[in-house]
Write a structure and sequence with these properties.
It is built from 3 helices and 4 strands; from the N terminus they run E-H-E-H-H-E-E. The longest helix has 10 residues. It has a 4-stranded mixed beta sheet with strand order 2-1-3-4, with no helix packed on it. The chain has a single domain, classed as DHBP synthase, CATH 3.90.870. With 106 residues, the protein is α+β, with helices and mostly antiparallel strands.
Length: 106
């Protein structure tokens, strides 16, 4: 299931800039399963902080055209990696407490 549509919320380490977490003491991490995204991360040699490719409340995009519809004029570039098979939101699990808590099933 991981890499894939699973987001884990963890305590923010000192190395993570506050601008990445919006000033929160937690950070949400996810490792994509798409080969282009994985290769981009590998080639960059650094962690990548990025929001989802849709506006809040809108469905997750499954192709580049969906991203253009939602974010045209708000982003500089889109890498079209082809249509993806999963359009579900990721499962979000909060791991900051004593007991893991599913905040959103995917």
């Amino acid at each position: 299931f991981w890499p894939g549509p699973l987001t884990m919320i963890l305590p923010k380490a000192d190395i993570v800039p506050k601008s990445t977490t919006g000033g929160l003491d937690t950070v949400a991490i996810r490792m994509p399963s798409h080969p282009i995204a994985k290769e981009l991360i590998r080639q960059s040699g650094v962690y990548i902080a990025a929001p989802s490719a849709n506006l809040s409340g809108r469905p997750s995009p499954t192709k580049a055209e969906h991203v253009i519809e939602d974010l045209s004029g708000r982003i500089d570039m889109i890498i079209d990696g082809g249509e993806v098979g999963i359009g579900l939101e990721s499962t979000i699990v909060d791991l900051t407490g004593d007991v893991p808590m599913v905040l959103r099933p995917g």
